[in-house]
Amino acid sequence: MTGRRATTTLWRPTGPAELALVRELDWRAWPPRLPEQPIFYPVLDEDYAVRIARDWNVKHDGAGFVTRFEVDTGFLGRYPVRQVGGRTILELWVPAEELDEFNAHVVGRIEVVHEFH
Fold first, then answer.
1. Element (H or E) spanning 49, and its range?
2. Quick count: other Cβ atoms within 10 Å of Cβ 68?
3. Cα gap 114→49, rounded to integer Å
4. Taking a C-beta distance cutoff of 8 angstroms, is the pair 30, 69 a contact?
5. What pLDDT is attached to residue 83?
6. What is the rounded CA–CA span in Å between residue 78 and residue 3?
7. Does residue 96 surpass a pLDDT of 60?
8. What pLDDT does 14 receive?
9. Given a cut of 50, is residue 1 above it in pLDDT?
10. Would you say domain 7-116 falls under CATH 3.40.50?
11. For residue 111, which phi and psi values (nearest 5 degrees)?
């Protein structure tokens, strides 16, 4: 029996510096967190990612980008969905020390779907 594994679509609002590192990783992985970044926060709602990229990243970094990527659904079960505000403000909290394993479960490429300046 052949079949594709089930994936879940996630989004990540990001600034230009992180996006450059993703590009260096051939659009297939997220870079290691900085010491002041103990958690990697992908989000489950595109609109929420747009709001962060447009309203926060542009203000702080001069540009904001929304990326979309797929992750193996079975693997994601280890990360409970966290509601951090309204009903659509949903995130996964991936500890920095688990990011390499998380990256190993990214399916396909990370793509930029929105850009703000």
1. helix 46-52
2. 16
3. 9
4. no
5. 86
6. 23
7. yes
8. 96
9. no
10. no
11. -125, 145
